[in-house]
Every structure is written in structure tokens, then in C-alpha cells.
Amino acid sequence: MSSHANNPFSAVDASLGYLYQVRLSLLWALRRIKFNPDFLISLETLDDVTFETVGNVATDLLQTKHHLRSKPSVTDASPELWKTLRVWFEGNANGTIPSSAFLHLVTTGAIPPQSAASFLSYAGRDITRARQALDVTAQSSTNVTNKAAYAAYLAASSAGRSRLLERVTIIDNAPTIVELDADLKMEILWAAEREHLVAFLDRLEGWWMHRILAQLTSSPKDRVASAELESAMASLREQFKQDSLPIDDDILDFVLDDEAETGYHSFTFVKQLRLADAGKRRVAIAIHNYYRAFEQRSRWLRDDLVGSFDVDKYEKRLVEEWEVVFAAMRDELGDGASEKVKQQAARSVLAWAECKSFPIRPNVTEPFISRGSFHMLADKRRVGWHPEFNERLSEILTQKAGIL
């Protein structure tokens, strides 16, 4: 029987462990960028997390050990301690780990007093006592799990062990994946207003996750540059200013499939487009803009980046702008215009709504917000394209009710 079958939590714990590396690497990068503006970062290369110079020289390697439901003790025979030491001693012996790199074990577990790990922590550091305690354990312990790690450790000379341990720091009681929220918010406190920190962090982590995924799945030499993180932060800061709003990449890049698009064909705004005899491709674009504007505006509201008053004010402005154009179109038509002429006039008003941009805030320049918002208003029959859109829509609804 597999270990996953024996322990239903093991798969979850493993997944959380990988996500922990992603979140912790962002936290360390945000802290590091304050005093070192130029560095590279990668996951699952030399170690769980690796920091390098822009010249690809490893400076800091992190091993992470995450425990959500327990707080294990990092004893002298701790498997997680010796698993980490094995990676480092074997890497040091075969040259994959540079002799100048600092080595960090970050664990949510706890270090017992007077243990080898305690002598490798920031407080009470004593490399000689740490080596002596590890020597005793490696030479006398009967722990089968650690056997290969003991062998790798003892294969190094006494002086070699001390030299490597000089570079090791063990950090215990690290925040769990959930507790990292507070630490991450502290690092971005300067970047956005306090009430918007959660929304800012969500978007920063979304970008970070996407970038780390690219690093893991592309060239083995790919690294995330600190300059990329700074650029992402700068872009988000601009979007969170009073005269702007964030445009989320997942919404901006979203493409509706044919089945999802068909689901909108019964919407009133699509009926309005058909009254104007809009082409199939034009209708598809309108549905796409409607979807994106609806989703983005809903997210702004959920994240308290705008209030319902802001949305109402924006929609009122759109309606007022439309009224001017729509009234002018009807005046130009006059009485007795043919249906073909009416549809041409309707498409001219539609073209105006498609081409004219009305930002909800001065620096929100993505056209789909304005275009999609017009279609949202058309769905509520507050605006329309055909000169007789209200009457025609009422007829359609009456006919449908009669059929039912």
C-alpha cells in the first residue's frame, strides 16, 4: 500500500511543501532586495531555493521543512536535519555546491536547547560543539533512515566538516505557509494603502507564481532576476494609486471557448447587437469584452478597490455620453427611414461605443473596461444601438412570453 494510502495527509503536506518554497522564496527576495538590488533566484536547482549573483555564482541555498499540523523537534538525530546535511555534504564533495555559498535550513519545527541545531542557529552559535554533537550522532546512532547521511557526513574530514558547518544556519519556528501572510504584508506595507494590501499581495503572488512556474518548466538555466521583481512591484504600485486600478492578467488574457460564448447568446446585450445586424465576429468580440469587464469590475468591488458609488457614477457618465450620440443619430435619421438605414445608424452608434474610451479612473486605459461596460448597460437596456431598441426588445420578450 502506498504511503499516500496510509496517510491521507501526505499528498496535501507534499503540495503545501512546494507552495511553501514559492511563498518563502518571495519573502526572502523582498527582504534581500532592500540591501542587494541585483541577484538571481531559482527553485529546485542547486537546492529548494537558490540565490545567485547576476554572474550565476550561488551565494545562499535554502532547504525548507514545512509542518502545518505539528511542530517536530530538530534533535541531533532528526531525519529532516540529516537529510539536509546529506544534500549539502554530498554536494560539497562533488562540487555542485560552491564552497562559498551560505546554507540555510528553514524549518517550522523547534530546536531543543543544547542540541547540535541550537549551536548552528543565530543565537548561541558554536561550530565546535555543533560538530562534536553531530560526530557523536553519526558514529553511534542506529537510525537506519539517516544511514546514508551519516556516511556522507563522516566521509568529510574533521576540518572539512567544520568548514562546511561554518556556512550552515538553522532557522527554527519559521512561519507556516498560512502565517507567511503577515510577514509578506509587512514587506509590502510601503507599496499600497493598508486596506489594499491583501489585493496587492494577491496580484504580486499571482505574478510570482506564474514566473516561478516558467522558471521550473523552461530552460534549466532560467532564473528570476531581482530586476523582474522590482519591475512587477513598480507596475503594481502604479495600478494601486488613486488615479488607477489594477488590470489582472488572467482576465486580460482570458479567451472564452465556443461553448461558453454560446451561453451568452440569450443575453439582452447580444439581442441588441442582432437588432443592429452586427456581424458574427463583432458579436464574439462584444461577448469577450462584456465578460472581461464584468469579471474585472466584480473583482475590484470584492477587493474594495472601488465602491458601488464609484461604479454607479461611472455608469451614469457612460449613459450621459451615449444619450448625446444616440439623440444625434435619431435626429439625423428623421421619419420614414428604412430598416436597413436604421441598422446602419445603429452600427454607427455601436462603433462609437467600441472606439471611444471612457476610463473609470484617469490611468485605467484598457479599452475593454469601457467597451464591456457599455454592453453591461445594454444588457440592462439603459443604452442601445438601434433607434427603436426599447420597442423591439419589448416585442421580442412579448413574443417569447407568448410562446411559453
What does this structure look like?
The protein is 56% helix and 7% strand. The chain is α/β, with parallel strands linked by helices. The protein folds into 2 domains: 3-239, no CATH class; 250-403, no CATH class. The protein starts with a helix and ends with a helix. The model is unreliable at 1-5 (pLDDT under 50).
Strand order of the biggest β-sheet? 5-4-3-2-1-6
Tertiary shape: elongated
Strand content: 5-15%
Mean pLDDT: 94
| Sheet of most strands | 6 strands, mixed
Number of domains: 2
Which stretches of 5+ consecutive residues score pLDDT under 50? 1-5
Write down how many β-strands occur, each being a DSSP E stretch of 2 or more residues.
6
Question: Radius of gyration from the CA trace?
Answer: 30 Å
Short description:
The protein has 404 residues and is of the alpha/beta class.
Features of this protein?
single chain; 404 residues; alpha/beta; six-stranded mixed beta sheet; 17 helices; 6 strands; elongated
Which helices and strands occur, and which strands form pairs?
Blueprint: H1 3-6, H2 10-32, E1 40-43, E2 49-52, E3 58-65, H3 79-94, E4 102-107, H4 127-140, H5 147-154, H6 158-166, E5 168-171, H7 180-187, H8 197-217, E6 224-225, H9 226-239, H10 249-252, H11 258-262, H12 268-275, H13 280-302, H14 308-333, H15 339-355, H16 367-379, H17 389-403
Parallel strand pairs: 3-4, 4-5
Antiparallel strand pairs: 1-2, 1-6, 2-3
Helix pairs in contact: 2-7, 3-5, 4-5, 4-6, 8-9, 12-16, 13-16, 14-15
